[in-house]
Amino acid sequence: MDDDRNATQIPILKLLHDMKSHWDSIYYMINCLRTLRQALDCFFQAPAHKDIADRKLNEVDWQILKDLEVILEVPHSFQQSVSSESMLTLSCIMPIFETFIIQWEHLSM
Fold it and tell me: 40-49 burial string, b = 16+ CB within 10 Å, else e?
């Protein structure tokens, strides 16, 4: 519920976990966590969970997760572009890789 006591739609998501063979699994986990922020806030506000309320993420934690998601979105996009190609060639991969490098350099500024 929002501040006006209106019901809020929260998407149904699958449980995710880190997979060493999937380079972007952490990106997906952070994205999922940020999507469920409102549900998590409600969970920690419930009286039944007052014993773990100190585990609730604060604004700084959420900002760090947002920053990590932005950073990890670059290799995620790169991996998605590369995996969509059926027959990779150097002439095909180099522009994608250059874009990857430029995007990360831009984030570092």
Answer: eeeeeeeeee
Distance separating alpha carbons of residues 99 and 82, to the nearest angstrom? 12
Give the pLDDT confidence of 45-57 residue by residue, as tens digits.
Answer: 999 999 999 999 9
72: alpha, beta or left? (left if phi > 0; alpha if psi -120 to 50) = alpha
Amino acid at 22: H
DSSP letter for 48, please: G
Q: Which residues contact 95 (CB under 8 A, 6 or more apart)?
A: none
For residues 11 and 35, what is the distance between their CA atoms, to the nearest angstrom?
A: 8
